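Sat 14:20. Reprocessing the chain from the morning session after the first attempt stalled halfway. Input below, unchanged.
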Amino acid sequence: MKQHEFKRSNRQRAGVVWFTGLSGSGKTTVCHHVEKLLIDRGYHCALLDGDKLRAGLNTDLGYTEADRTENLRRAAEVTAMFLDVGFIVLVPMITPTEAMRTRIRKRFHAESYAEVYVRCSLDTCEQRDPKGLYRKAREGLIHDFTGIDSRYEPPKKPELILDTEHWSIEQCAQQLVEFIERKYSIYKKE
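Finished this time. Tokens:
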């Protein structure tokens, strides 16, 4: 089946929503909320969790710049497979540099790609620290940790900014669903 046939049968355009932001900013949490809302509205979507990819497909990779680049390349290739069968794909991955995000963006057609910056200060992310990673990085147990001893460059022109420091997860999810429906919906969902 070709993508235009999937589009007609799925009643949506395929698309990639790539999330960038610091660890603990809320990328994956927002994505889980949005995935549920989209499925409830009849959309075909997939969430490719960066942590799960690291624990499976990318277990052979570390956190050097070269390994991070390869991690993202593999994630983009898996994303492309879902895109080819008509899904809206939610991809929450730190994607720390502008150069990395540019490579990801170039992998997809402009009309099917959107970058979402999940903005949250380093201080707030460290206070949240849901996985204890900032604490471990500060103790020297984790090296090359983004935001501590490895740089994070906020995106220059994302299609959408979600401010999880000041907005609730529900507010961010609702704003994102509205954005996705404007960008990828062909027909009104019941």
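The radius of gyration is 16 Å.
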